[in-house]
Specification:
Elements lengths: L2 H15 L2 H17 L1 H4 L11 E4 L4 E3 H5 L4 E5 L6 H12 L1 H6 L3 E6 L3 H11 L4 E4 L4 H6 L2 E3 L2 H9 L4 H5 L5 E3 L2 E5 L5 E6 L12 H11 L7
Parallel strand pairs: 3-4, 4-5
Antiparallel strand pairs: 1-2, 1-5, 3-8, 6-7, 8-9
Helix pairs in contact: 1-5, 2-9
Length: about 220
């Protein structure tokens, strides 16, 4: 089953259980985000990726510069383990992680949530790749993916028990748009998929031809 089919089924299930007021406000937030043009201004294919270093949930340091010396990187931004759509997405990526690595690529995911919640993401979804902690959304901001939750959405989410500040360890109530990037060893983005609507995601199969193309044109990466 394609990822979007799984997400559509999840959306139907969630809508049946979610109070109409919360559904309405969430939809308005997605529409407002789309109208803002933030996704169009974010980093896309052809852009040079900003260098960064982040720690994973266990405190281990990840350096983009060092990782790119070994080959391409598949980089995913996600909202947090509290988002069921992100969990389905991450499990779908895990299902093709062997194929991704077969092209000499590494795989890493990034969220604004706390270290403990990043570890929980890996545990819940049985992930074989690191979940990096983007404190305050600094890296997400550099990619153009970070946005401020509206007062309306925050109030409704809090009314129904969502405490984003606690999940992220940050009082700013900001979120990261889910996104996937394939980054070539030279640091240029070869592929980008940004989800303004968090219930819509590109299929992981789209990553494979991009990685195959890079492998064909960069056969010696990681061997010297």
């Amino acid at each position: 089953m394609r990822l979007q089919d799984q997400l559509d089924a999840l959306k139907a299930e969630c809508l049946a259980k979610t109070p109409p007021k919360l559904t309405l406000v969430r939809r308005r937030a997605v529409e407002g985000l789309a109208a803002s043009g933030l996704a169009a201004r974010a980093m896309h294919a052809g852009d040079q990726i900003p260098a960064f270093q982040l720690r994973d949930g266990y405190g281990r340091m990840f350096s983009l510069h060092e990782a790119l010396r070994c080959g391409p990187i598949v980089l995913l931004f996600y909202r947090g383990w509290w988002c069921p759509y992100c969990n389905v997405d991450l499990r779908a990526i895990e299902a093709v992680s062997h194929d991704i690595r077969s092209f000499g690529a590494s795989l890493v995911i990034v969220s604004q949530q706390t270290s403990d919640n990043s570890v929980e993401t890996q545990r819940r979804n049985r992930l074989s790749f690191a979940s990096l902690v983007d404190v305050g959304g600094r890296v997400a901001h550099a990619f153009g993916l970070r946005w401020k939750v509206s007062d309306e959405l925050r109030a409704v989410e809090e009314d129904y028990g969502m405490d984003l500040a606690a999940f992220n360890g940050d009082p700013s109530w900001t979120l990261t748009m889910p996104a996937r990037y394939v980054v070539a060893p030279a640091g240029m983005i070869e592929y980008a998929d940004i989800s303004v609507d968090y219930t819509q995601r590109g299929d992981p199969s789209e990553l494979i031809p991009v990685l195959a193309h890079l492998a064909a044109h960069l056969p010696l990466v990681g061997l010297i």
